[in-house]
Amino acid sequence: MESFWKGAGAVVLAVILGLALGKQEKHNAILLTTAVCVMVAGIAIAYLSPVVDLLRRIGDMAQLDQQMLGIVLKTVGIGMIGELACMICRDSGNGALERTLQLLTTGAIFYLALPLLQQLLDLLQEILGGL
C-alpha cells in the first residue's frame, strides 16, 4: 500500500504545481500531468498483477484456453491505457482528440474481442443445434 500513498501524494503535488504554474506555463503543466499519470498508471498496473495471476489460476482450473484469457487481459489493458490518454486529452482541453481516442479504443477492443465473439457464436450454434 506504500506505493498507493506515494502515487496519491504525487497526484496531489502535481495538482498544486499545475495550479502554481498557471496559464503562462501551460505546456509545462501538461508535461507534468502526463508524467505523473504515467507513473500512477505504472503503480495501478503493479496492483493488477495478483489479479492477473488469479485469473490465470481460474483459467487453468476451468480448462479455459489461455489465448482467450490473454485476449481479455489485453482488452482490459487497452481500455485502461485509452482512458488514461483520454484524461490527458481532456485535461489539456482537446476534446476532439479525446473523443477520437475513445473511438480508437473502442474499435481496438472490439477487434481484439472478435475471437471471443466467434467462440460464443459457435457455442450458441452448438447449443441450439442440439435442441
Structure description:
89% of the residues lie in helices and 0% in strands. It has 4 helices and no strands. Helix 2 (26-61) runs antiparallel to helix 3 (66-91) and helix 3 (66-91) packs antiparallel against helix 4 (95-129). It has helices spanning 2-21, 26-61, 66-91, 95-129. The model has no long low-confidence stretch (mean pLDDT 86). The chain folds into 2 domains: 1-64; 65-131. With 131 residues, the protein is mainly alpha-helical. The protein is elongated.
Structure keywords:
89% helix; mainly alpha; 2 domains; 0% strand; single chain; 131 residues; elongated
Q: Distance N terminus to C terminus?
A: 52 Å
Largest β sheet strand count, sense and barrel closure: none
Per the principal axes of the C-alpha atoms, what is the gross shape?
elongated
Tell me the radius of gyration: 20 Å
Unreliable residue runs: none
Question: Would you count the extended β strands for me?
Answer: 0
User: How many domains?
Assistant: 2
How would you classify the helix and strand content by structural class? mainly alpha
Mean pLDDT: 86
Total of DSSP H or I helical runs spanning 4+ residues: 4
Strand share of the residues? under 5%
- Fraction of residues in H or I helices: over 70%
The SSE string, one letter per element, is HHHH
